[in-house]
Amino acid sequence: MTGDAWQPLMGELDRWRQAGRAATFWLRDDDAVEPTPALERLLALTANHSVPLALAVIPAFTGEALAERLLPARHVEVTVHGWSHENFAPAGEKKQELGAHRPADHVLASLEQGFVRLRQLHGPRLTPVLVPPWNRIDPALIPSLGGIGLQALSVFGPEKDRGLPAVNTHVDVMDWHGTRGGRDTGTLALEMAARLRQVEAGEGTLGLLTHHLVHDEAVWTFLEALFVRTARHPACRWAALSTILAERGIG
What we know:
The protein has helices at 3-18, 37-48, 64-70, 104-122, 185-201, 217-230, 241-247, and strands spanning 23-32, 53-57, 76-80, 126-130, 152-153, 171-172, 206-210, 236-238. It is of the alpha/beta class. The chain has one domain: Glycoside hydrolase/deacetylase (TIM Barrel, Alpha-Beta Barrel). Strands 1, 2, 3, 4, 5, 6, 7 and 8 form an eight-stranded parallel β-sheet that branches.
């Protein structure tokens, strides 16, 4: 990894600094269930750099062990990652748990069950945001999410008006369709810089998406280097998801 690989992002942040502005970054990590060595590494890394972390937890398979482990981790919040992260789409379609393949009342009931379970386990640490498994949800379900206590949605890609406020992720560290390891640092830096230009043209944040259970060393190296470069940069603010929601008047 060379300094040149980071130039697009750092150059963009330096331009923001010269303009007297600061961009809001946030971190979402998916598929948490229980304490693992990979989760320990993520918790330590984010704590060392004072980077808030939103953990998308799968309600059906989690329990007291994770809740107890997170008690001292003040920088961590929990979000609702569907119910069981189970695929109900038929062969040949993209995977979905929250698609139109089951009756809507069944899907909503499972989400409410997941929300209640995580609230019981994590109390005020739970931020009432739905993170759909595989970042996919039937649009027809979205207007009903508020009725079960969910206040916002987080998927991957540009935010759209879908009937519920959205705080999305925009850059994924994983090469899902290739090596299934960490993506190239230069490519990620370019994508982050491009997202900052989109934010500058309107409003929003830069959301980074990770999956601690499948990280290779390339991902861990990238995250360490990213936090070193940005956590104290005057044009970058790593914010908690709950803070972003509050600043938007959500909740």
